[in-house]
C-alpha cells in the first residue's frame, strides 16, 4: 500500500460503504455519488492496497480476504477521525482557566458583578482578571491573546474586532434622597439651576453631551465637579446637593438616591448623543 499521505481519505469512506453494502450501486447512493465515480474510486483502492478487494458475485460484489481483514480496523479508524472533527464539549463545572476582561466602570458594576456571582456557582475553577477599559490597547491585546473580552461603548470598540450589541441604556436625572428639588417634577429651568456633577474618564472635562443638547435649545448648566468614574459620581450625589445624569442600570440598586420624575428636561436624556455617551 502507498504511504497514507498519498491516499485520499474519501477512498476509505468508499471502501467502508462497499464493505457494508457489497454493491457499487448501493455504495454510490449512500455516498451521494454516481456509480461511475465509485467504480473509479474502487480502481484507485485496488491500486493503493495492491489487491482486487472485491470480486463479482451473483448479487453484487464479494470482498476478498484482504478486504474482509480491513473491515474492522477501517471502521475504527473512520470513527476515530470522526471524533477528531467533533467539537470538544465544554463543561464549565470542570473548567480551569483564567479569563481576562477589559470593562468600563459602568460595565464592571452592571455586568461583571452579576457575572462573577453566576460564575462562582457554575464554574468555580475559572478565574477572572478585570482590567479598566481605556487603560490598555484593547485591540492589540486581543490580537495577542492577552485579552479575551472587552465590555465598552460602541464608539470605543475597534472596527477590526468582532462585536455584539448587548443592550441599550438610557440616563436618568438623580439627586440625593431628601433634596428639595426631588419632591416634585423638575422642569428645564429647575434642572439648569442645579449644581451638576459629571463623569469624565480622566476627570478633566466639564462638558458632555448634555451641554450640547442644552445649547441646541439655548440653555446651559453649571458643572461644578468632574470625576473619573461613576462610583465616585454616585457617592458625590448621595452626599451633596449636586445632581447628575446617570445610566439607569447603575441607579436601580443604589440606596440614598432619588430619580427625579421627568418633565421637559427628560427629552435631553433621550437625545441620541446622550445614548452613545458615558460622560454626561
Question: Overview of this structure, please?
Answer:
The protein has helices at 9-21, 24-31, 35-49, 65-85, 105-122, 138-144, 188-193, 209-216, 230-238, 248-251, 266-269, 272-275; strands spanning 54-56, 61-63, 97-103, 126-132, 149-151, 171-176, 195-199, 222-227, 244-247, 257-259. With 280 residues, the chain is an alpha/beta fold. The protein has a 3-stranded parallel beta sheet, with helices on one face. Strands 9-6-10 form a 3-stranded antiparallel beta sheet. A two-stranded antiparallel ribbon has the order 1-2. Helix 1 packs across helix 2.
Concise description?
This protein is α/β, with parallel strands linked by helices.
Key features of this structure:
280 residues, rod-shaped, alpha/beta, three-stranded antiparallel sheet, 42% helix, single chain, 12 helices, disordered C terminus
Helix percent reads 40-55%
Rg result? 34 Å
Identify low-pLDDT runs: 269-280
Order of helices and strands: HHHEEHEHEHEEHEHEHEHEHH
Compute the number of strand runs. 10
Beta-strand share of residues: 15-25%
For the terminal residues, how far apart are their CA atoms? 74 Å
Please tell me what the overall shape is: rod-shaped
Task: Specify the structural class.
Answer: alpha/beta
Give the count of helical stretches.
Answer: 12
Q: Quick check: average pLDDT?
A: 86
Q: Major β-sheet, in short? A: 3 strands, parallel
Strand order of the largest sheet: 4-3-5
Assembly status = single chain
Amino acid at each position: 500500500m502507498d504511504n497514507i499521505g498519498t491516499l485520499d481519505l474519501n477512498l476509505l469512506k468508499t471502501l467502508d460503504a462497499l464493505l457494508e453494502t457489497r454493491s457499487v450501486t448501493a455504495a454510490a447512493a449512500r455516498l451521494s455519488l454516481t456509480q461511475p465515480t465509485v467504480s473509479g474510486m474502487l480502481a484507485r483502492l485496488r491500486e493503493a492496497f495492491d489487491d482486487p478487494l472485491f470480486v463479482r458475485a451473483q448479487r453484487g460484489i464479494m470482498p476478498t480476504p484482504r478486504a474482509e481483514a480491513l473491515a474492522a480496523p477501517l471502521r475504527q479508524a473512520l470513527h476515530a477521525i470522526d471524533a477528531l472533527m467533533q467539537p470538544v464539549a465544554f463543561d464549565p463545572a470542570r473548567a480551569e482557566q483564567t479569563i481576562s476582561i477589559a470593562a468600563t466602570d459602568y460595565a464592571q458594576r452592571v455586568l461583571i458583578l452579576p457575572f462573577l456571582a453566576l460564575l462562582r456557582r457554575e464554574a468555580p475553577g475559572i478565574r477572572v482578571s478585570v482590567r479598566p477599559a481605556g487603560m490598555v490597547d484593547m485591540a492589540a491585546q486581543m490580537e495577542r491573546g492577552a485579552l479575551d473580552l472587552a465590555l465598552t461603548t460602541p464608539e470605543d470598540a475597534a472596527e477590526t474586532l468582532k462585536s455584539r450589541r448587548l443592550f441599550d441604556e438610557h440616563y436618568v436625572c438623580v439627586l440625593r434622597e431628601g433634596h428639595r428639588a426631588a419632591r416634585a417634577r423638575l422642569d428645564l429651568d429647575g434642572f439648569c439651576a442645579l449644581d451638576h456633577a459629571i463623569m469624565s474618564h480622566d476627570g478633566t472635562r466639564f462638558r458632555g453631551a448634555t451641554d450640547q443638547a442644552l445649547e441646541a435649545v439655548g440653555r446651559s448648566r453649571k458643572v461644578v465637579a468632574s470625576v473619573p468614574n461613576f462610583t465616585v459620581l454616585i457617592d458625590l450625589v448621595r452626599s451633596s446637593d449636586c445632581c447628575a445624569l446617570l445610566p439607569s442600570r447603575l441607579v436601580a440598586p443604589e440606596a440614598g438616591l432619588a430619580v427625579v420624575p421627568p418633565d421637559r428636561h427628560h427629552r435631553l436624556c433621550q437625545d441620541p448623543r446622550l445614548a452613545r455617551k458615558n460622560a454626561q
